[in-house]
Amino acid sequence: MVLGVLKMYSYASFILHKNFKKNLPGLGFLLRNLIKKDVTTYVQNRKFIISSEVSDCYARMLIGKYNEPETHIFLKSVLLKLNKPTVFIDIGANIGEFLIDMALEANVSKVIGFEPNKKCYDACLKSLQANQIKSFKLIQKAVSFKESIGKMQSNVTNPHGGYLVEAADNLNSSDIIEVTTLKNEISDDEILGNEVIMLIDVEGFELQVMKGAKDLIAQKKPLIIFEYNYVSEKYFTIDEIKNELKDYQLYRLRSDGKLDQDFSEIWNLVAVSKNNEAFISSISNLVCI
Asked: What are the boundaries of each domain within the chain?
């Protein structure tokens, strides 16, 4: 009964967002308070275990819909045309929406995920195991430009999202999370012979992640999808990204999974290396002029 009501509300939220680009308030609150035990759901033949600990993170996945369908469409279009072995790196993996989907793509050889929130990390691990995915590495750390310790400051509207702040001396040990860099966690052998796709969603720390991945970016020239919206604008600018990724072309990821360079309304940006012919070719039919 409760699950049926939640699905109806989730479907109403999906219709409202699809047709009017508006979000129906209260879905996260209802999921958080009414789901008391783990529930299994499927999205495009991917199996997800909805953890009761972080049930508000799943939203429209409850009715078999991805929360960011345009990013899934874009990624699958790229992989289809790329047709080369690829390592997918998800920084801010949350409950594994993208990690699980990409891990089950035929030409993705390995997925690597970073998620500092212990409850989200555990939920992601459950879904990876439920899909019997073997070639993955999931790391319970935050990612930035240097190694340190920190804490996650909760987002008021999303208790399981948040942003990274430096740790104070009076923090409890349970509050502290490890902060690492991609350079420290990903070896050359793990990405040898593979193209690399990076997805970065870290609530304003996207630029810091890139700074800590200079060597990887210079070596592999990965395709980079990263969040840039009203939250990100408080921490960095598009010009700063352009300065960091000097040999890259930036595009806006549209709601239909295609690309353009209209930066007036943005949620995610895509950075493509001007020196990686494989990715240039793989997006060629997705760019709208």
From this structure: 2-63, 69-283
